[in-house]
Design a protein that fits this description.
This protein is an alpha/beta fold. The protein has 8 helices and 7 strands; from the N terminus they run αααβαβαβαβαβαββ. Helix 3 packs parallel to helix 4.
Length: 207
């Protein structure tokens, strides 16, 4: 089915194909990369929203940042905690024409965001430490205007989200708390899309 979906979706751009391959060959936890289909969804959503600025929490090797940059008008501001990935990120961004639209910051998201020189983002993509998703939501919500968007990755967590076997897993518990928090918050319209590991699409409708 995955092959069918990929073959009937827009092709993966060459720069992203190279990043996909090099990440899978050379980087630990390569499954964290968004990949072809989710990447095309991110690019399409970014083009549909046409945000002035995007904030991404969790760069990994730069794949999703480049996808989001396809629709951004000004820049994608991305934050990655793992400083060992910085050289890889900057190299990968240089492979794409959209790389010049991506601004990279290295450090803990909750510490970096308050010091960024921007105070509003039309689109935020959360894909960092799953244990901290609730904290990230609290930090970014004031930065998103009414009518703005938040995307959260991995919100089905390979099915663990509803599996009692993971009731003590901190990442699973963090995602469950996030999902419950979003579901109960009337500031947001929201829907979980069962693509890959689950993505929640959130629209801020009131302050």
């Amino acid at each position: 089915m995955q092959d069918y979906i990929e073959s009937h979706s827009s092709p993966e751009p060459e720069a992203l194909r190279l990043i996909n391959r090099s990440t899978n060959l050379n980087v630990l936890n390569a499954h964290m990369l968004s990949g072809h289909v989710q990447g095309r969804l991110l690019a399409m959503l970014s083009r549909m929203i046409s945000p002035l600025r995007v904030l991404e929490l969790g760069t990994f090797t730069g794949y999703s940042a480049l996808c989001l940059a396809e629709g951004v008008r000004e820049k994608v501001v991305t934050v990655e905690h793992n400083d060992e990935l910085e050289d890889t990120i900057r190299h990968n961004l240089s492979l794409s024409e959209y790389g010049k639209k991506v601004e990279v910051h290295i450090g803990d998201c909750s510490e970096v965001i308050p010091h960024l020189p921007y105070d509003d983002y039309d689109l935020v993509f959360i894909d960092a430490d799953k244990r901290e998703y609730c904290k990230y939501l609290d930090i970014v919500s004031p930065l998103v205007p009414v009518g703005g968007w938040i995307l959260a990755d991995n919100t089905l967590w390979d099915g663990h989200i509803t599996d009692p076997a993971y009731d003590r897993d901190k990442q699973t518990l963090g995602l469950r708390a996030f999902n419950d928090k979003v579901a109960a918050d009337d500031r947001f319209e929201k829907v979980i899309i069962p693509i890959r590991d689950g993505m929640t699409v959130i629209r801020k409708v009131k302050c």
